[in-house]
Amino acid sequence: MPVEHAAIIGAGISGLTAALALSRRGISSEIFEQAGELTDVGAGLQVSPNASRILAEFSILEGLSKVWLEPDAIRLISGSSLRQLAAVPAGKFARERWGAPYGVLHRTTLQKALLAAVTADPLCRLHLGVRMDTTLPPFERAADVVIGADGVWSKLRQSVVGSPSPRFSGNIAYRFTIPENEAPSFLDRASVSAFLGGSAHLVCYPLRETGSFNMVAITAGNIAPQAWQSEPTAEQRAQLRARLSGWNAAIVSLLEKHRKLTFWPLFETTSGAWQDGRKTVLIGDAAHAMMPFAAQGAAMAIEDAYELAAFLSNRPVAEALALFERHRAPRIAKLRQRGAFNRFAYHAKGPIRIGRDLVLGLKPPLSLAADLDWIYGYRAADLP
Ligand SMILES: Cc1cc2nc3c(=O)[nH]c(=O)nc-3n(C[C@H](O)[C@H](O)[C@H](O)COP(=O)(O)OP(=O)(O)OC[C@H]3O[C@@H](n4cnc5c(N)ncnc54)[C@H](O)[C@@H]3O)c2cc1C
Questions:
Q1: Contact 91, 72 (CB under 8 A)
Q2: Does 128 contact ligand 1 (Cβ within 6 A)?
Q3: CA of 345 to the centre of ligand 1 (A)
Q4: In what order do the strands lie in the sheet with 262-269?
Q5: pLDDT at 42
Q6: What is d(CA 169, CA 289) in angstroms, rounded to the nearest whole number?
Q7: Residue 80 Cα to ligand 1 middle (Å)
Q8: Helix count and strand count (H, E) for the chain
Q9: Which of the residues 47, 176, 200, 229 has the least number of beta carbons within 10 Å of its own beta carbon?
Q10: Ligand 1 in contact with 297 (CB < 6 A)?
Q11: From the CB of 206, is ligand 1 less than 6 Å away?
Q12: Where's the FAD-binding domain (predicted)?
């Protein structure tokens, strides 16, 4: 029997994208979101061409392109000498090579654009302030498929035997912002800069919507179980300071100066089943929360949502869900591997760091770009 109606738990990037993707296939949906309103959550987001290509299908890319920044390059820079080690070209090059733009924006900008499209779509119905606990929320109409887009702490996971569980990754993000007019000159206003140093890296890029730099330092660290976003304690600040030993004084003082740091322990999920063989499926962070070392979590959520809708459009639900999982799992596994490799390379120390810098220095920009073709050049199922 063809799928006609879906229930979606969670109105984050994966849930909203799923509603839009299903609607394009003529499938209606009800989305249940625990928050009473969708407010400014999260930080900056890099949207790579594999994801922006999908956003174009919902006619929201044009609006985003007007407010976001298309960085001219993704630069890898030494955290001690501030010397550029390598740069992947982006901007016009990204549009030409990967057929869609690479943009950076505030996560809220993307979520609001998706939300506006969902609200305007007669096949999508959003219920705010409805939290799923141990049972599913009451649907207005019986759902043929139930989609868990409820993030790393997913409740719907309990309906899928052998589903992944969340675990602390051993990494902590410290986030802050700097008004653009106060930013030191070593912060490039036209690109994404990743400063690399032993045990930590710092990603910085300007957010045009807010006139500030989004700054996220990621280090190894410890936390109390279930700790979540908060101001770092004196001890956590000391932990960060220790990780920055040997870093350039200008960067260290930037982090010291910013009293308003957000301490953000990073959780990921173990591998496990994403669907129950009947009508329940997990997507996005609910299925495979990953570390931001390849900046692909939201992009994978968008790809998941789009491809799930494609599979559901022309087969029985159980078959579509099994196919979806089989199709997506190898790509997610490969991305996790890339993330783990990036972590190793970004946080390298001693001789490994010297080797890394040599290798990066020898790689021409085109060869760095070619290494990313499988990620950014990906065309989700059924895309032209
Ligand atoms: C520091 C950092 C930097 C990152 N940078 C990038 C980047 O540059 N590019 C990129 O692609 N990705 C990036 N990511 C990853 C990206 O943010 C996530 O992968 C993505 O937002 C996941 O979206 P989601 O919709 O699956 O989950 P979420 O965004 O977590 O959304 C889940 C939604 O479900 C709702 N919900 C939860 N539980 C319930 C419930 N029981 N009932 C009802 N509703 C519920 C929540 O309120 C929320 O709205 C980064 C992540 C981090 C931590």
A1: yes
A2: no
A3: 25
A4: 84-89, 73-78, 192-197, 200-207, 212-220, 166-179, 262-269
A5: 64
A6: 10
A7: 32
A8: 13, 14
A9: 229
A10: yes
A11: no
A12: 143-334
For ligand 1, whether the C-beta of 46 sits within 6 Å is yes
Give SS3 for 45: strand
Domain segments of the chain: what residues? 5-71+101-166+268-341
pLDDT in tens, 111-127: 999 999 999 999 999 99
User: For helices 249-257 and 234-243, what crossing angle results, to 10°?
Assistant: 170
Substitution site in 8, 13, 264 for ligand 1 pocket (most atoms within 8 Å of beta carbon):
13
Is domain 5-71+101-166+268-341 given the CATH code 3.90.1150.10 in the classification?
no
pTM of the model: 0.96
Instruction: Please choose from 8, 33, 267 the residue to mutate so as to test ligand 1's pocket, defined by most ligand atoms within 8 A of CB.
Output: 33
Tell me: the pLDDT tens digits for 48-94?
999 999 999 999 999 999 999 999 999 999 999 999 999 999 999 99
Closest CA to 219 of 197, 235, 234, 204: 197
Indicate which residue's Cα is closest to atom 52 of ligand 1. Answer: 292
